[in-house]
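Box 4.2: Ligand-aware structure prediction
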Amino acid sequence: MRRVVGALILFAAACGGEKAKPAPAADTSTRPAPTPPAVTGTVHEVKMELVNGNYQFEPITLTIKPGDTVKWINFSGGPHNVQFKKDRVPAGADAVLNAAMAGRMGDLTGPFLIDSLATYQVSFANAPAGTYAYTCQPHEMRGMNATLSVQP
Ligand SMILES: [Cu+2]
C-alpha cells in the first residue's frame, strides 16, 4: 500500500507544472467551498491573460448555444474577474446571471480569480438569447473587455 501511495506521489510530481489541477478537495472543513455551479451544455473556455502588455480575454468574442457553459481561466496577469455590463446584456438576463454566478462580489460580478489557472464557470441555462458584454474589473480601464452571444 505504501508503495502504491509513493508511486502516486511520484506520478503527481512528474505531472506537476503547467495545468496542474488542484487536488480534489477531500477536506472541506477548513474553508467553505463555494457551491460549484452546475455545468450544462458545451463548455467554452475563455482565457484571461496578459500578452505583450495587453490585458485581454481570449477569445474576445464567443458564440454559444442556449444552455452552454462558459469557463474563464486565469491564465496570466491576474487577478481577474468577470463582470457583466448591466446595460449591455439582453432584457431579463440579470436575474438569470446573478443566480448562475457563484460567489458573486456584487451585481453581475464574479469573484477575483487569484490563483494561476483558477477557473470560473457560468451556465447560460435559461439565459435569454442576445449579446452579453462583460469586463474584468481590475483591467477594465486597460481594455480588458469582451462579448459573448447566446444564439439559438
Ligand atoms: Cu483582468
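In the box above, the bound molecule is copper (II) ion. The chain has one domain: 39-150.
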